[in-house]
Each structure stands twice: as structure tokens, then as C-alpha cells.
Design a protein that fits this description.
Number of strands: 19
Distance between the termini: 45 Å
Number of helices: 11
Structural class: alpha+beta
Strand content: 15-25%
Radius of gyration: 27 Å
Helix content: 25-40%
Length: 500
């Protein structure tokens, strides 16, 4: 809902709400809010109390001529008005219907219940590279991102998990937390086409906070396996995961088509132990440790492989976005399960590049400083004779590759090998129609003392128009620079010369 000098207006992504398999379009009347198909004759009675509906792109009210503005004084969830209800008829299947008085009554009832259930200590948004977008929208608390019915669902789930056995409560809490990605007022429809009509576009489709004009209030406890429902998520995340753990499979390309092959004799499970020494007693054991990657506490010269996926400089602010789930998970987990967990992150220790810097990274750059600490710890715990550090990386910026090179050089690593693999589907909404890298460089590194006779030539020219070749060029230059005696500034200059 946008305000103007009179009634204001409701802005939707489109007045077409859905396209049926036969091509018939379900539309909403911009005056009386009646939902109907184009095949039916619609007689608009245009009630005076109804706010007119506009399709996005319209900037001014057609009655008073005033510009539309978002009412930042209202809680975010209250800036939306119900315009259509999704329902399923036993005879006619899924339908979109006009909002009824009964629907509005249920919403009003949930508003009153929300006020009674919400905890007094509000979940304040701390701010960050991505969550600052919320604060600019006048959103101060995470609970504002959820409708009243969604809030009731979350808080009732928290009451239920508190009464469950630890393992059941843990799985249920994780499931509810996962469902919040598809059950918030930041969700929308993926599209009105036949192929995607009704599917939910989740909160972080764009790896950032985005604000749809047509928000979708999903029903997480709908009893069928539909987009965003607990039943669907249980099937996809827990049930399928358990089956895979019992019988792991890998995708194999055969005649350019993927085929799943079972790994005979392999299982993805074991006995959890509480420290590193107990790993050596028997087989099929694992040790989970929540700690800083710069100070793991693991024994020196004791690890065979470190396989990781470090932050790609300034690409995605995982720490900032994770708070969206973390503030709720702290309340959803059973009390015994959440004991001992560090819920607050130290922002200064995050391995994230400063997006506002355009100059070359120096030692005070947080990405270079913190990544160097992590790689030094990797070097300390890896077996000096056979240990390997393996991770993926890609970036268009010379600053990102330069910082990575300096951090690895300072930790005394050399490149053993690299592989260029496809990583991003060009249809992904966060990279579609953008000059985005669609490949990853898988980098295999070893402590300097273990590398024998591996020389890398510096490629003189980079192909910036080919994602695969670009990642290969970067990997080769990384290997050459790790073996060089360049000063740090010379390393940065080498990347700047080729990438710009």
C-alpha cells in the first residue's frame, strides 16, 4: 500500500495473477478488487472505500495526482493489503478468489493474537552490508517481516519444540527455521506462467533482501507437498537427506546426461565424539566443532585435507544475511540443544571485503587480514608432508584475487592443481542478464615443502569474455605468483594489469 494525498493506492507487480493451462488469465479489477477470468464478463461496482490498484511503474495517483510514497511509519507487514485468496476446491482444484469478509475477519483475529504472543524483547536488526536495506525501509525489527499468522506459526512452533525430545526438537527447529525462507512478507510468486504459477520465490533468491510489490503470505502448515510447506520441506530436506545418508549417490555424466550411481559400501553417518583424540579410536567417527577458523584448537600437523568454500571477497555477506534465521533459531531450538552455542558473531572477524573501498587492499583490509589468519591456521594443522588445502574461488575484481594471493603466500602455500567447473546456472535470478561468472576454479594447494617441480606460467592476456577461460587464467596466474619472489604491491600490480 502506497500513500498519496487521498486514499492511496495498492501497487502490484501485475494485474494478471495467474495463467491457467488453457491460456486463460486470472486478473484482478483495479477498482473493485474482484478476481475473475478474462472469459467472464465483469461488472465493476467501484466502491468508494476501496483503494484503487495500480500495476508497478505508475508513480502518481489518478485521482489527486499526488506521488505515491511508502508509509515508513507503518510496520513493514502492515504495508500490504490482502487482494486475493488462494484456495483449493474439491471439484475444480486450485483457484484464486476475491478476498471475503470472512478472510478479513481471520486476519483481524490474528492481529490481536500477535500482540499477545510477541516477546517483549524485540529482535532488533543490527544492520550490515545487506540488512541496511531493511533499515533504509524503516524496518527496525525482524518480526516486522512476517504477517501475524506467520508470527503465530513461528512462536507456536517454538512452544512445541521445547516439549520435544532433543533430537526431534532439533530437527523440527531446523525445519521451521528453513521454512522462514519461504514464509515471510518478502516472498512473492515466481511467476504467473503455467510452468511456475503458484511456486514461491524465496526470500534470498537474489542473495539479498528484496521487496516484492505482490507479497505472498504462504501457508506453512498446508497438509500437502506444495511450495514452502513443512510437509514439502520435510520430504526434500530431512527424508531425502536421511535416504542419501543410508545410500549415498553421486551424479555421473554418461553421454552428456547425468546419471546417479550408488557408492557401494558407503554411508554418511557415524559416531559423534567430543574431541580430536577420540577420532583415532575406531572408525566411522566425526567431530563437530564451532569455533573461529583462525583458531580451531586442533593439533598441529594432524589434518589430511581441508575442504572449504571461503567468502568470495565482497560477493555475499553470509554473516549479515544469516541473522534473519539465527534470531529465530535461538528461540526454536530446545533449551538443551542451544546450550553452549555462541549466537553473537564478532563482525570484525568476518572474512568479508569492504565493498566501499576502491583502492588496493593493504594489511589493514579486513578481508586480507582475516583470510591470512585463517590460512595460517590451515597451514599449522595440515600435515606438512601430505596435507592439502582445497577450495573454490571466482571473482572479476583484481583486488579479490590479489588479497587471496597475498594471504596464501604469507601462509606458505603453493598451487598443486586446479579444475574449472560450471557453478552458476545463467537462469539464476541473482545473475540473470548480468555479467556474472558462471564457473568456479577448484584450487588444490599444499604447504610449500611438499610441492616438487610444479611451475606455472603467467598468462599474458586474459579472456574476460569467457567465464571458463577466465577462471583458468586466474588459476594459472595464482600458481605463478605463489612461486614468485614478488613484493605484495607487485602481486597486486600483476592482477591489476590483467584484470583491470
Amino acid at each position: 500500500v502506497q500513500k498519496c494525498n487521498c486514499l492511496g493506492g495498492i501497487i502490484l507487480d501485475s494485474l494478471v495473477l495467474r495463467t491457467e493451462p488453457d491460456g486463460t488469465r486470472v486478473v484482478i479489477c483495479s477498482q473493485c478488487h474482484q478476481v475473475s477470468t478474462e472469459l467472464k464478463e465483469h461488472k465493476c461496482h467501484s466502491p468508494a472505500e476501496k483503494r484503487p490498484i495500480y500495476q508497478k511503474g505508475i508513480k502518481k495517483c489518478r485521482f489527486c495526482g499526488g506521488p505515491f510514497q511508502e508509509d515508513l511509519a507503518r510496520p513493514f507487514y502492515a504495508r500490504y493489503a490482502p487482494v486475493a485468496a488462494a484456495c483449493r476446491c474439491p471439484r475444480h482444484g486450485f483457484q484464486l478468489a476475491t478476498v471475503s469478509k470472512s478472510d478479513l475477519g481471520l486476519i483481524a483475529k490474528s492481529e490481536k493474537k500477535r500482540a499477545l504472543l510477541l516477546p517483549k524483547n524485540k529482535l532488533k536488526i543490527a544492520g550490515g552490508p545487506k540488512s541496511d536495506a531493511l533499515i533504509r525501509k524503516g524496518i527496525r525489527y525482524y518480526e516486522e517481516l512476517f504477517s501475524s499468522r506467520q508470527i503465530i506459526y513461528i512462536l507456536k512452533a517454538a512452544e512445541f519444540t521445547a516439549e520435544c525430545d532433543d533430537l526431534i526438537g532439533l530437527n523440527l527447529a531446523l525445519l521451521v527455521s528453513t521454512s522462514l525462507d519461504m514464509n515471510a512478507m518478502l516472498c512473492g510468486y515466481k511467476g504467473t506462467t503455467v510452468r511456475r504459477a503458484g511456486a514461491v520465490r524465496h526470500v534470498f533468491s537474489y542473495h539479498a533482501y528484496s521487496f516484492p510489490y505482490t507479497a505472498l503470505e504462504n501457508n506453512p502448515i498446508y497438509p500437502e507437498k506444495v511450495s514452502g510447506s513443512i510437509k514439502r520441506l520435510f520430504s526434500d530436506r530431512i527424508e531425502r537427506g536421511k535416504k542419501w545418508a543410508l545410500e549415498p549417490r553421486e551424479r555421473v555424466l554418461k553421454n552428456s546426461r547425468p546419471k546417479f550411481v550408488t557408492i557401494t559400501g558407503e554411508v554418511d553417518m557415524g559416531q559423534g565424539v567430543t574431541n580430536q583424540k577420540k577420532l583415532k579410536i575406531g572408525q566411522g567417527r566425526f567431530f563437530l566443532l564451532q569455533n573461529s577458523a583462525a583458531d580451531t584448537g586442533l593439533d598441529e600437523n594432524s589434518v589430511d585435507f581441508i575442504v572449504t568454500d571461503p567468502p568470495y571477497y565482497d560477493s555475499i555477506q553470509y554473516q549479515d544475511l544469516a541473522a534473519y534465521f539465527r534470531v529465530w533459531l535461538e528461540r526454536l531450538l530446545p533449551e538443551k540443544t542451544r546450550e553452549g552455542i555462541e549466537w553473537d558473531y564478532i563482525s570484525s572477524a568476518a572474512v568479508v571485503g569492504n565493498q566501499n573501498r576502491n583502492d588496493a587492499p593493504q594489511f589493514e583490509d579486513p578481508y586480507l587480514t582475516n583470510l591470512s589468519k585463517v590460512f595460517l591456521e590451515c597451514r599449522r594443522v595440515l600435515r606438512s608432508d601430505s596435507g592439502r588445502l582445497i577450495f573454490t574461488f571466482h571473482h572479476w575484481k583484481a583486488l579479490a584475487w590479489g588479497a587471496l594471493t597475498i594471504a596464501l603466500r604469507g601462509s606458505h602455500f603453493s598451487l598443486v592443481n586446479y579444475y574449472t567447473v560450471h557453478s552458476e546456472n545463467p537462469m539464476s535470478v541473482h545473475i540473470a542478464n548480468l555479467k556474472s561468472i558462471q564457473h568456479d576454479a577448484i584450487l588444490v594447494l599444499a604447504p610449500n615443502s611438499t610441492v616438487v617441480g610444479k611451475d606455472w606460467d603467467q598468462p599474458e592476456h586474459f579472456n574476460l569474455s569467457d567465464s571458463r577461460e577466465f577462471c583458468g587464467n586466474c588459476s594459472q596466474l595464482l600458481g605463478a605468483l605463489l612461486n614468485s619472489d614478488y613484493l605484495d604491491q607487485e602481486v597486486l600490480a600483476a592482477w591489476e594489469e590483467r584484470i583491470g
